[in-house]
Amino acid sequence: MKVLCQVGEQIAGTVEAAVPSAEVVVVPGDGPVAGDVQGEVLLTTAMGSPNLASVLERGVRWVQTLGTGVDAFPLELVGDRILTCSRGASAVPISEWVLATMLAFEKRLPDTWIEQKPQTWNFPAGGSLGALHGRTLALVGLGGIGTAVAQRALPFGMRVKALRRSDAPSPSADVAIVRSLPEVLRDADHVVITAPATPETRNLLDASAFSVMKPGVHLVNIARGTLVDQEALREALDRDIVAMASLDTVTPEPLPEGHWMYGHPKVRLSPHVSWSMPDALDALVDVFIENLGRYERGEPLLGLVDVAAGY
Q1: Residue ranges of the chain assigned to CATH 3.40.50.720
Q2: Percent of the chain scored above 70 by pLDDT?
Q3: What distance, in Å, lies between the first and last C-alpha atoms of the chain?
Q4: Across residues 167-179, what is the average pLDDT?
């Protein structure tokens, strides 16, 4: 089995060492490719490469992107080929990030840290701190990341409900599946967006969605910025519907200098880093290595993309 690799010699060596039956050929991501290069499998970037169209014509039947989403991938080039991604590989660090943002919101961090003698001791200024215990978590999306968030939230005593695009059953008896956006948003204390970015989910959280939320909600977005109507979010923040927005992803990325989100007191903005952990890249590659074995054995592949649906 010949694999074409557009993500560097180091990753190519890792794949070849893990799957001795695979011959991995490193090909450039831009410009011409040697005329005699052929391969059945292509490992490429999450955004595709400038020369992707020509590389696909080298006998490629299966494409795997080294990333967890395909919203930036040129899906129109896939044709009748199989497309997979490393979906779920970043679920651990991202779900930990979500729990960190929810805890920071409830415990008012870093505001409760002090640098000088406070007016009161043993009693937090501004009233008691919050807790995750007894709070309602709404998950907009219940794939690998949403499931990982739920698994970590439940031991804190949170009530968890989720909206998912498929009819698949709940991964846990303690996670309630709802069938409409208003139903999942209503009465939530924390709303976490984990759904994929597709044409159908663009501006999913718009003015009408924010109008359903109860005042004081905490919004967390670790999916894609396109799922949130950012002007509607701004209004919801200013009207105290959303008490805090913890945003690891926005649109565009990066935001231009002077954008209102940088200075808004109710926005905690991070530069799309929730995926980061030691060996994060290895986790992405491991999915491809697992898939190579499945491909050879004729077994279903992980992270299969529905090209028509865009995810």
Answers
A1: 2-89+278-297, 91-269
A2: 100
A3: 27
A4: 93
Contact (CB, 8 A) for 239 and 213? no
- As a whole number of angstroms, the distance between CA 209 and CA 213 comes to 7
Instruction: Establish whether 272 is a catalytic residue.
Output: yes
The correct CATH number of 91-269 out of 3.40.30.10, 3.40.50.720, 3.40.1190.20, 3.40.50.300 is 3.40.50.720
Is the pLDDT reported for residue 99 higher than 90?
yes
- Neighbour tally for 22: CB within 10 Å: 23
Catalytic position from the list 224, 234, 259, 264 = 224
Catalytic-role residue among 9, 200, 231, 253: 253
DSSP for 157-224 reads T-EEEEE-SS-PPPSSTTEEEESSHHHHHTT-SEEEE-----GGGTT-B-HHHHHHSPTTEEEEE-S-
The Cβ of residue 213 has, within 10 Å, a number of other Cβ atoms equal to: 21
